[in-house]
């Protein structure tokens, strides 16, 4: 199975997280830029999740390798909570004015939300994608 698009998405997602970190370090004055970057970033994540749900997981469900099927199911199940929390975060902080009004709250929410996304991308790159490519 060719998963190059998913790998490319991961690079974009990890870059998006880094971009948000860099902007956040600039402080409240960057609130509008942070919101713009977050909206763009959330679109990347939404498209990636949709592709996983529509193509990746259904394809892996048909694998002849029961370990691949089990791994796919585990990753799909675990991703549901991470994705839900991210989408709520993106909706809550989609305007510069909201970020500026509670910059510390935004930073706390970003740390709690983006770390699991970052960790998940790393886990998929280390464990999930190599297993898919090996099957």
What does this structure look like?
The protein is an all-alpha fold and 135 residues long. The protein has one domain.
Order of helices and strands: HHHHH
Largest sheet: none
- Return Rg in Å: 16 Å
Task: Provide the low-confidence segments as ranges.
Answer: none
Tell me the fraction of residues in β-strands, as a range. Answer: under 5%
Q: For the terminal residues, how far apart are their CA atoms? A: 8 Å
Class inferred from helices and paired strands? mainly alpha
Mean of residue pLDDT values: 96
Shape: elongated
Write down how many β-strands occur, each being a DSSP E stretch of 2 or more residues: 0
Helix content: over 70%
Q: How many individual helices?
A: 5
How would you concisely characterize the structure shown here?
This protein has 135 residues and is mainly alpha-helical. The protein has five helices and no strands.
Task: Please write out the topology.
Blueprint: H1 4-25, H2 31-61, H3 66-92, H4 96-101, H5 103-134
Helix pairs in contact: 1-2, 1-5, 2-3, 3-5
List its traits.
135 residues, mainly alpha, 5 helices, 0% strand
């Amino acid at each position: 199975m060719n998963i190059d698009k998913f790998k490319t998405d991961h690079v974009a997602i990890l870059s998006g997280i880094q971009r948000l970190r860099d902007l956040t370090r600039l402080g409240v004055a960057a609130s509008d830029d942070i919101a713009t970057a977050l909206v763009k970033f959330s679109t990347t994540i939404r498209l990636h999740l949709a592709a996983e749900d529509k193509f990746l997981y259904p394809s892996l469900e048909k694998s002849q390798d029961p370990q691949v099927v089990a791994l796919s199911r585990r990753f799909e199940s675990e991703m549901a909570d991470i994705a839900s929390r991210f989408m709520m975060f993106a909706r809550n902080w989609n305007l510069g004015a909201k970020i500026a009004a509670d910059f510390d709250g935004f930073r706390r929410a970003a740390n709690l939300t983006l770390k699991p996304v970052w960790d998940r991308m790393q886990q998929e790159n280390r464990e999930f994608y190599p297993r898919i490519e090996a099957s």
